[in-house]
Amino acid sequence: MKTSLGMRAGLLSLLIFVAIVAIWHVATLPTAASGPAVDPEYAKLVGAAAATGSKSAMPTPADIGATIWKHLADPFYVRGSNDKGIGIQLAYSLGRVLLGFGLAALVAIPLGFLIGMSPLVYRALDPFIQILKPVSPLAWMPLALYTIKDSAISSIFVIFICSVWPMLINTAFGVGSVRREWLNVARTLEVGPFRTAFKVILPAAAPTIMTGMRISVGIAWLVIVAAEMLVGGTGIGYFVWNEWNNLSIANIVTAILLIGLVGLLLDQGLAYLARLVTYPE
């Protein structure tokens, strides 16, 4: 039954994909010219073919396929500071996300452990967490640029800020939700606090911690695109903004698809790790 459901879901996904491509193709078919097709200022941007209606200003599915193939054929080329392969741009973005995410994990998980185990620490830190948590990560960017004076490190700092809260809150919740019976058994057996933390609390809280990490990496991947648009230089966010300035819609759509694909891989990687630490009760 499970296999059948998976096959049917896959078939339905394929049909939806075909329908989207078909609608997209029809929507970008050329139209008969009938006088001035678009505003003259817009025509200067989109080109003469789009202005006369003989070619859509939006790329067709075939255009996107050709653009994706072109990028995948040579993803790591370097032809100048503003002309680098999409593989290099994704690698820069991934490196910043993983570094900021890793630093956030080093801070958030131990601190969340402490908050979850100590009601006193929880009450003391809760006002700070509640005030700082809703602040948009990008609001920290000017302060980071002013103090750090390095755009790349500022991007990593923004990723750190946006990643730390979900991991901190989920870790504290997971640790605080460990069953009292398990802790009482450890206490009865005179297990030391350090061993209780690693042998009882950590395995019990691990699925919740992994959920927080999964949420964090998704937010981090969202934020890095906007952060790189602001700071420029390299990265997939800068690539999208640069292609907008070049009015290359096909490159923008290609980048959007690759951003989604990389985000999916990051999420599925952490989902796999979460399954490894989840056990049936």
Kindly summarize this structure in a few lines.
By secondary structure, this protein is mostly helical. It has 12 helices and no strands.
Task: List key phrases describing it.
281 residues; mainly alpha; 12 helices; transport
Structural write-up:
The protein contains 12 helices and no strands. The chain is about 75% helix and about 0% strand. The chain has about 280 residues and is an all-alpha fold. Belongs to the binding-protein-dependent transport system permease family. It comes from Reyranella humidisoli. This is Nitrate ABC transporter permease. InterPro entries: MetI-like, NtrB.
Write the layout of secondary structure elements.
Elements: H1 2-27, H2 40-46, H3 48-52, H4 61-73, H5 86-117, H6 119-132, H7 141-148, H8 151-176, H9 180-188, H10 193-231, H11 236-245, H12 249-276
